[in-house]
Every structure is written in C-alpha cells, then in structure tokens.
Amino acid sequence: AQSVTQPDIHITVSEGASLELRCNYSYGATPYLFWYVQSPGQGLQLLLKYFSGDTLVQGIKGFEAEFKRSQSSFNLRKPSVHWSDAAEYFCAVGGDTDKLIFGTGTRLQVFP
Amino acid sequence: EPEVTQTPSHQVTQMGQEVILRCVPISNHLYFYWYRQILGQKVEFLVSFYNNEISEKSEIFDDQFSVERPDGSNFTLKIRSTKLEDSAMYFCASSLQGGRSNQPQHFGDGTRLSIL
User: Fold this and answer.
1) Which of chain B's residues have a Cβ under 8 Å away from the Cβ of A90?
2) Percentage of chain B lying above the pLDDT 90 cut
3) For every residue of B71-85, which 3-state class applies, written as one string?
4) How far, in Å, CA of A82 to CA of A16, rounded?
5) To the nearest 10°, the Cα dihedral for A97, A99, B41, A31?
6) Which member of A52, B20, B25, B99 lies 3.0 to 4.6 Å from B94 by CB, making a disulfide possible if both were Cys?
C-alpha cells in the first residue's frame, strides 16, 4: 500500500540547534517527494521537492532533504533552526497518479 | 509570487445544507485539486480536475461532492446535504501539469468548514 510515515508527532528544539525531521514512504512507482510546511492558520507551503537527479535537494528557508532509495526515506534537515520555523511539517509522495499522499505531520516547537 | 486563494476562510453550515467552497487557482495552471484535513488527521486527496472534467477521485469523493470550473478563474467544491463528519479544513491546490509530471502542487490557505 502507498503510504508516508512521519514517526515524530512532536519535536522540540532550541533556537540555533540543528533539526532533522524523518519521513519514510512506501510507493510502488518511482516516487516524487515533497516537504510542505503549515504555519498556524495558513495553508501548505512547498519547502522543497525531489523528482530525480541529485539526491540532496535544497529548498526555501535554508532547508534541505536527502532522498535515500535504499531506506525509502526523505528526511528534512536544517543546520540552525530559527524561532520562525515553528510550524507543522508534512512529507508527501506522488508520481504515478494526480494525488499526493501525505504523512500525519510533525509539529516543530522552537525554544529561545 | 502568484498564489492560490480560497474563500471563505471559515464556513459554518447547518447539517443537511449545501455548501460551496471557492478557489482561484494560479492563473496559468491547468490542473486543480481538492484535499481535506479532518482535525488531527492526515491531509487526504479528494479529486483532481483537468480540461473541465474530473481526472481522478478518491473513494471519499462520492455523489455528495461535485466540482466545477464555472468560469475562467474559479474552481469550486460543492458538498450537498452536509454531515457532521464533513467538518474539516478543505484545501484547494493547482499545478501547471498533472501529478505524473515534475510540477508541484501549490496550495491555498484552506477553508475551515464547520457543520453544526
């Protein structure tokens, strides 16, 4: 079955610390992978995407993600978190149909 | 940067009533989508729309739901005879090409639908 798993429901980090949000997927075809961020009261903003090629992709706001086919993972990273990064982060997979399949999200809290 | 806009931001409706959620996709985009997110649950795909017809739909998208592009800019989701379980955040999205392409979907801010 096609699915996305985000094992961490809630993560808390200190401002300036590094961040890694985990995402694992199960998908029958070649996956297209995405990370979206949702700030309170707002919609889903695309952070970055992977379609093919270089497995390390750069996104907006200083985020990056690495596609590891052998681990079926697409983890999101940021070297130094800012208080404004506090939000909910969603990993999604698509590629052989129109629909995106989303994970349950990881809520990031940032302490000063 | 162009964006997807949705109205209203919050809709409160009595159970059994019909509701129409509205979206203005990004102007040069050709594919349009609706998703929903029930509180505390995943974002779920409802339907995709291209060239004035449904391209793909999920099992959630039954006869209670319909979509329409009534003019050159709006894309609507109609829910007939609303039920309590229709309460959710509904997201509209659009993309330049369909899901099998390397064009990402861009989402609006959502409409929170509350059924009383």
Assistant:
1) 43
2) 84
3) CCCCEEEEECCCCHH
4) 6
5) 50
6) B25
